[in-house]
Design a protein that fits this description.
Layout (H helix, E strand, L loop, with lengths): L1 H19 L1 H36 L4 H8 L3 H6 L1 H37 L7 H29 L5 H29 L2 H14 L1 H29 L3 H22 L1
Helix pairs in contact: 2-5, 2-10, 5-6, 6-7, 7-8, 7-9, 9-10
């Protein structure tokens, strides 16, 4: 009993220490800055496409474009070259956006772990390979695990399905955090993924205890987000912004706590 209480007190002390550690807020600001810049870039790209559509096709909204394409075949055929050029602009714009977003995300992960382990030498190219690998693993995890679970629970309440999705995200985030921790030390992508599974298996007791605290904090955050609009009567945009900020703070805390 005394040993259990001692361990519980140590975990609670660790939780309190992470909230007062400046590293938490440094990594959160880096994450938030990256997200804001990527979203800003996306908005700029959409504005460019809207201006391009207006100049090349004489339409300014997607509804007007659909109406134009739904007119007589002769008119559409007469504008075929303009439509083809516009679609090429759309493809190139989104390709550049994706490349920029991948670069910014990879660079931010590199900088985050440089804060955690300043003594390690972290070059960009290996980090890019690591993020692409984790990205493909994340797509597979979502398609073959999360989506089937959501389909199985199709009759469940929407709030429960959302909670299930968040739990799945936390599990994958915890895995990527472990993989990043191993990668920073050995600089090998596949070895880091295998090392993450090995670390989870060999330290499963400690990790299981840590995940219980992580899921407990997630439930507290989930309850807070449910009642936040009722308490503060927030505007929808403000509520969405605050929710994203709180969730990102939570992920930054999870990364430190694990």
């Amino acid at each position: 009993g005394s040993v259990y209480r001692c361990k519980s007190n140590m975990n609670l002390k660790k939780i309190l220490n992470t909230w007062t550690d400046k590293t938490l807020w440094q990594t959160f600001l880096l994450d938030a800055g990256t997200l804001v810049f990527i979203m800003f870039t996306f908005i700029v790209c959409m504005m460019i496409l809207q201006k391009t559509a207006s100049a090349m096709l004489g339409v300014s909204t997607s509804e007007e474009l659909q109406q134009m394409l739904g007119t007589s075949p002769d008119r559409v055929f007469g504008m075929l070259e303009d439509v083809t050029n516009y679609l090429l602009v759309v493809f190139l714009t989104f390709l550049l956006f994706i490349l920029l977003a991948v670069f910014l995300f990879t660079q931010s992960r590199r900088m985050v772990w440089k804060i955690f382990m300043p003594q390690e030498k972290l070059t960009f190219a290996p980090w890019l390979k690591m993020e692409l690998l984790l990205g493909f693993l994340g797509i597979g995890y979502f398609c073959f695990i999360i989506l089937p679970l959501l389909f199985l629970g199709i009759l469940l309440p929407a709030s429960f399905k959302m909670l299930l999705g968040v739990v799945g995200l936390i599990v994958f985030f915890s895995f990527t955090t472990t993989a990043h921790f191993v990668f920073v030390q050995n600089k090998k992508c596949w070895s880091a993924v295998g090392g993450a599974f090995h670390l989870i298996r060999t330290r499963r007791k400690k990790i299981r205890t840590a995940l219980l605290y992580v899921f407990g904090a997630a439930l507290v955050l989930y309850g807070l987000l449910l009642f936040l609009p009722k308490i503060l009567l927030m505007h929808e945009f403000l509520y969405t912004s605050v929710s994203i900020a709180l969730f990102m703070i939570y992920l930054s805390w999870t990364r430190m706590f694990l």
